[in-house]
Design a protein that fits this description.
alpha/beta, 10 helices, 7-stranded mixed sheet, 40% helix
Length: 231
Amino acid sequence: MYETLTAGLEALQLPLPEETRRRLCAFGDAVVEQNKVMNLTAITEPTAVAKLHLLDSVSILKCAELAGKRLIDVGCGAGFPGVPLKIACPGMKLTLLDSLGKRMTWLRETALPQLGVEAECITARAEEFAQSRRESYDFATSRAVARLPILLELTAPYVKVGGAVLAMKGSAAAEELEESKNAIRQLGLQLEKVHHFPVDGADHAVIVLRKIRPTPAQYPRKFNRIKQLPL
């Protein structure tokens, strides 16, 4: 895992200290170990963990300056991309949000303390927690949660004007962006850039959507409504 991570970081032109790389791998190992008793990930082979979890997560550092900023990882699952980002950029302030309590308990009580990683771990539904943290973050990110029109309604309300949604997508990024034109406009966002990174032979993208005006108060709607009638 360490060798694959190191080679991948060189390819990304993202130099990280040896200690940081080892802590990233320690988190990867912790996820794989916990996966034996809890459904966290289908990716458990060490080189695949390095490429598809760790490198994929830290690629966001090529797209935004996170030091001193507040970031919320919406639907964080096993802690990707939020935990690797916090390990690689300790100066950021991280909130991990997921609706599955067992995952969040493991992160809060076991994984993060063992790694010495500070993060706020919240068990809640994204569309409900947004009411108490509206426009409170510099960045919101998410990975593998939903197609982009749905994802933007769940993440944009958290971001303050001037901040950005950092949406992690695969090869369908352009198609999902096309679907999202109305959502981008309605939610107060503006497409800034799409960063492309080759990860294990596949195209991975980070879509940067800048918040240019407040998100209207009616968003996010209840999740059934978001899913049935995406913006």
